[in-house]
């Protein structure tokens, strides 16, 4: 379906490019234009320029240029239509209506409104329930935080919510569609959430799409979430994201925690770039959503083993999306909520600073339980390390081999040999001589000329003067 030229024009006109870019780049007025550090390449002195008159931007460093729509596409990783929709929402232009079937939209609007009424109901219940209030105050949650996150309480009653909503004029089918009630075998309806503290789940625009409820005691299940429905789809949202992006000070860096309470506690203590994945493993669609707003993510899950396994699985997805991933370890098996409550925000900020890059974190895990005096253990270690380094480029591999050597006391060449042995083994097991990836691995056992060539290329690409002198002195045919 085509989007009308007028609509595109209107969206462009109402989204001033200086405003839009200012949301992610600090711009300074310089004459008729604005300048700042380019978001598309790394630089220390500003060469990124925005013209308010012409409503365009251009970077004199990397050459990126365009209008407000291309900026949003590049900066938030969106396609053309998604960028238009984002900009339309930003200035409250109805965009979906021209796209979606109007009836479908009206139905969705009603389900959103229903959720808002439910959130209000839970919120008011909380004001009047001592036990639920004690739950939050016992965890250091302030009244301000309760309001900000719209926390609430579901009554200890089979039809508390149902009765309230029917009185408001909603039909059972609508309430059922949002997953708030359950139909029994006999065809009776009853509330899904009973006697739980409630967390409304917002999408990135701040719309209530579902709910999570936690028991007040030790009964099971500890957490209960809305089932998938027209508004809520598991693994596609990030709890807290709407608050983070509203704040603007997140500097394209996010902290990912596991649960509601971790996220809320961090926000309350001033760590306002925290989001919760609401599940142990992050999904590709969550990673894509993150990539719109972030370049770096710091993962901070519970330090127990389950958490660590989840960490590794989820982290690969993040890394493949192009995010720089770090792992924050909370000491003594505590979760971030407990830790920040008992140690304060400065101690948590210190953990953030000490968060390890993903590869370093994995290498540290690979060392666990390895006795470097036993050769059988060394093979085991080499196997683990090989897997970790497999996807790195040769230059990164060199850096990490050096690190491993410094770290373990094994000579660099011995590390290469260990890796080489593992790889040759995999190689002959596979017998897939045409597989480039397998052959690529062979670079581990590396002739000196290759190493020298790579070092030269590295120098050329990082130091301008050397580039000149290398280009002037070595013919490209001299490279293998
Ligand atoms: Zn640039």
Beta content: 5-15%
In helices, the fraction of residues equals 40-55%
Bound molecules: zinc ion
Q: How many helices does DSSP assign? A: 22
- Counting DSSP E segments of at least 2 residues, the number of strands comes to 16
Task: Note the gap between the termini.
Answer: 51 Å
Q: Which value, in Å, is the CA radius of gyration?
A: 27 Å
Q: How does the major sheet shape up? A: 5 strands, antiparallel
What structural class do you assign from the helix and strand content? alpha+beta
Strand order of the largest sheet: 1-2-3-4-5
Overall outline: globular
Summarize model confidence as the mean pLDDT: 85
In words, what does this structure look like?
With 480 residues, the protein is an alpha+beta fold. 51% of the residues lie in helices and 13% in strands. The strands form 4 sheets. It has a 5-stranded antiparallel beta sheet with strand order 1-2-3-4-5. Helix 14 links the parallel strand 14 and strand 15 (324-327). The longest helix is centred in the N-terminal third of the chain and has 26 residues, at 102-127. The protein is globular. The two termini are 51 Å apart. Zinc ion binds at residues 38, 40-41, 48, 59, 61-62, 64.
Provide keyphrases for this structure.
single chain; 480 residues; alpha+beta; five-stranded mixed sheet; 51% helix; binds zinc ion
């Amino acid at each position: 379906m085509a989007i009308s030229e007028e609509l595109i024009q209107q969206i462009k006109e109402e989204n001033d490019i200086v405003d839009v870019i200012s949301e992610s780049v600090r711009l300074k007025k310089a004459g008729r234009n604005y300048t700042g550090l380019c978001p598309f390449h790394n630089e220390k002195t500003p060469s990124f320029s925005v013209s308010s008159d012409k409503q365009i931007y251009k970077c004199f460093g990397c050459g990126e240029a365009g209008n407000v729509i291309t900026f949003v596409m590049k900066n938030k990783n969106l396609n053309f239509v998604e960028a238009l929709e984002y900009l339309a929402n930003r200035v409250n232009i109805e965009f979906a209506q021209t796209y979606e079937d109007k009836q479908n939209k009206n139905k969705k609007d009603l389900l959103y409104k229903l959720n808002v009424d439910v959130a209000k109901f839970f919120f008011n219940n909380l004001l009047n329930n001592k036990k639920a209030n004690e739950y939050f105050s016992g965890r250091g949650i302030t009244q301000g935080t309760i309001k900000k996150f719209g926390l609430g309480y579901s009554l200890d009653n089979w039809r508390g919510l149902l009765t309230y909503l029917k009185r408001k004029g909603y039909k059972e089918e609508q309430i059922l569609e949002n997953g708030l009630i359950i139909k029994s075998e006999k065809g009776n309806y009853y509330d899904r959430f009973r006697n739980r503290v409630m967390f409304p789940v917002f999408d990135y625009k701040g719309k209530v799409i579902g709910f999570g409820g936690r028991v007040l005691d030790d009964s099971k299940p500890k957490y209960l979430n809305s089932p998938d429905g027209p508004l809520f789809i598991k693994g596609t949202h990030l709890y807290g994201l709407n608050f983070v992006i509203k704040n603007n000070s997140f500097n394209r860096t996010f902290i990912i925690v596991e649960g509601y309470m971790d996220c809320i506690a961090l926000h309350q203590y001033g760590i306002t770039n925290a989001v919760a994945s609401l599940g142990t493993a992050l999904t590709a669609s969550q990673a894509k959503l993150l990539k719109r707003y972030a370049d770096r993510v710091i993962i901070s899950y519970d330090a127990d083993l389950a958490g660590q396994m989840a960490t590794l699985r989820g982290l690969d997805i993040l890394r493949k999306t192009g995010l720089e991933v770090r792992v924050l370890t909370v000491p003594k098996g505590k979760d971030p909520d407990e830790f920040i409550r008992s140690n304060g925000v400065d101690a948590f900020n210190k953990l953030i600073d000490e968060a390890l890059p993903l590869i370093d974190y994995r290498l540290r895990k690979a060392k666990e339980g390895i006795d470097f005096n036993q050769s059988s253990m060394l093979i085991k270690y080499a196997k683990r390390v090989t897997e970790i380094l497999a996807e790195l480029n040769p230059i990164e591999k060199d850096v990490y081999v050096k690190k491993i050597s410094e770290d373990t006391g094994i000579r660099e060449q011995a590390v290469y040999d260990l890796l080489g042995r593992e790889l040759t083994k995999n190689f002959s097991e596979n017998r897939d001589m045409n597989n480039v990836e397998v052959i690529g691995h062979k670079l581990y056992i590396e002739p000196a000329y290759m190493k020298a060539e790579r070092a030269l290329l590295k120098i050329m690409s990082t130091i301008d003067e050397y580039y000149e002198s290398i280009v002037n002195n070595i013919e490209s045919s001299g490279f293998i």
